[in-house]
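Q: Given only this backbone (457 positions), what sequence would you predict?
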């Protein structure tokens, strides 16, 4: 059996965000599940917009997410392959040079619209005789090149005839896209650079890509690209187009993508597994759960679980997932990062506070609550004074809180919230937080006494 070959093909024109990471994750999961290969392909033929810093950032983001790749390719390193494929298409009459300027094309489109015709490129350049081409080139015109679609001759002024390109999409089911009213796409610009529609196909053929998994914004491209596969005499890969993410309120995510870059999610202190699990499970029929080891997510992946409806991305859901993940992480898994954050107290402190951390950095906040300085909030001064007088002698352990509050209860008659809440406010200055039974030993008797006396300690 041939190995599956998947690829994630970002253009290095910006930072990766939750939307394109979803594409990366789905490709990666399927490759890992089936023992296939996962290629990182940098679609960097747009010289003006591609930047080396984004190439570096893409690699870093994928590394951080744990989405390792087996092979890396860059389109700018493959120009000779595109030249060779272009020659082959030209030889079979599927690629032709055009000399119109953008203004000329716009004028023609206006005329077509005025006549009630769709503004399809009229293939005028196909009719140019060799000496006419030479004359245009002598005038200083340089050609751009179009791929000749196989779609009847609607372009010659007749009403377009539907020309369906079909494929069985692994997510969307049977697809039939009409290319009858599309213009022959430009696949090479005047400056000789190639466009993605074409380069992607050449790459997918050369790299034996078996599955193209990408967003549904590419569905029309797919129809065109399938014709390029056919024209080059190559086997078609399978296609899977997933829906795009929208914001929780259903609006487009595009406005917020800066804040949803992997870089900013990372800066926020989120765990990579939370981001990957959300990206993997959002918009699928599986419940969204977080795993520190992705094996169950890999095993559970299936194209037919991916919904056709847009996935709703909710940042607060990501935070909740992160909190759920932290609550499961052992001390050993976070010890280094806790130390780097200045958090002491070993496993006992982590276990005392992890359920109260949304991001790992919150542990440092709890460490400051334990070790001070904390400005206490004293409500019910008399009660607090009585409680202070009852503080047990050290050493303190996990039992101290229960013994102490039992004594306070007996002495004051307070119970439930009336007993615990004023003590929490005085000891931590906060309304809520980790279980005091576990936190108290880290506060220690001296600091507890000072705080109960209303002093910052
Ligand atoms: N560079 C293209 C994009 O980012 C790749 C699409 C594809 O996967 O073919 O949209």
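A: Predicted residues:
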């Amino acid at each position: 059996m041939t190995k599956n070959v998947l690829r994630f093909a970002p253009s290095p024109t910006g930072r990766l965000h939750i939307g394109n990471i979803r594409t990366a994750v789905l490709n990666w999961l399927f490759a890992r599940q089936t023992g296939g290969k996962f290629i990182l392909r940098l679609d960097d033929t747009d010289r003006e917009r591609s930047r080396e810093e984004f190439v570096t950032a893409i690699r870093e983001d994928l590394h951080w997410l744990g989405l390792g790749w087996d092979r890396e390719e860059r389109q700018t390193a493959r120009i000779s392959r595109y030249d060779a494929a272009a020659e082959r298409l030209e030889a079979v009459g599927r690629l032709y040079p055009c000399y119109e300027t953008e203004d000329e094309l716009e004028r023609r489109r206006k005329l077509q619209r005025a006549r009630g015709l769709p503004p399809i490129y009229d293939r005028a350049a196909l009719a140019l005789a060799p000496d006419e081409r030479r004359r245009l080139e002598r005038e200083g015109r340089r050609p751009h090149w179009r791929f000749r679609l196989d779609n009847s001759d609607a372009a010659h002024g007749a009403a377009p005839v539907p020309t369906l390109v079909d494929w069985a999409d692994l997510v969307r089911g049977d697809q039939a896209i009409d290319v009858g009213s599309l213009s022959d796409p430009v696949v090479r610009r005047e400056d000789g650079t190639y466009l993605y529609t074409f380069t992607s196909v050449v790459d997918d053929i050369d790299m034996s890509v078996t599955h193209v998994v990408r967003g549904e914004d590419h569905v029309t491209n797919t129809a065109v690209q399938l014709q390029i596969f056919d024209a080059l005499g190559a086997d078609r890969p399978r296609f899977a187009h997933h829906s795009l993410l929208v914001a929780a309120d259903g609006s487009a995510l595009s406005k917020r993508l800066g804040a949803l870059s992997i870089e900013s999610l990372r800066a926020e202190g989120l765990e990579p597994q939370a981001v990957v699990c959300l990206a993997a499970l959002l918009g699928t029929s599986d419940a969204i759960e977080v795993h520190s080891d992705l094996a169950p997510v890999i095993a559970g992946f299936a194209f037919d679980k991916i919904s056709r409806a847009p996935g709703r991305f909710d940042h607060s859901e990501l935070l909740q997932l992160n909190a759920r993940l932290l609550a499961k992480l052992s001390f050993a898994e976070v010890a280094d990062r806790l130390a780097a954050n200045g958090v002491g107290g070993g496993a006992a402190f982590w276990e005392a506070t992890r359920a109260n951390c949304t991001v790992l950095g919150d542990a440092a906040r709890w460490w400051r609550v334990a070790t001070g300085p904390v400005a206490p909030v004293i409500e019910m001064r008399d009660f607090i004074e009585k409680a202070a007088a009852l503080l047990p002698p050290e050493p303190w352990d996990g039992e101290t809180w229960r013994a102490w509050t039992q004594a306070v209860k007996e002495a004051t008659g307070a119970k439930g919230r009336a007993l615990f809440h004023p003590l929490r406010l005085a000891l931590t200055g906060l309304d809520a937080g980790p279980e005091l039974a576990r936190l108290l030993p880290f506060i220690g008797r001296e600091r507890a006494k000072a705080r109960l006396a209303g002093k910052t300690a």
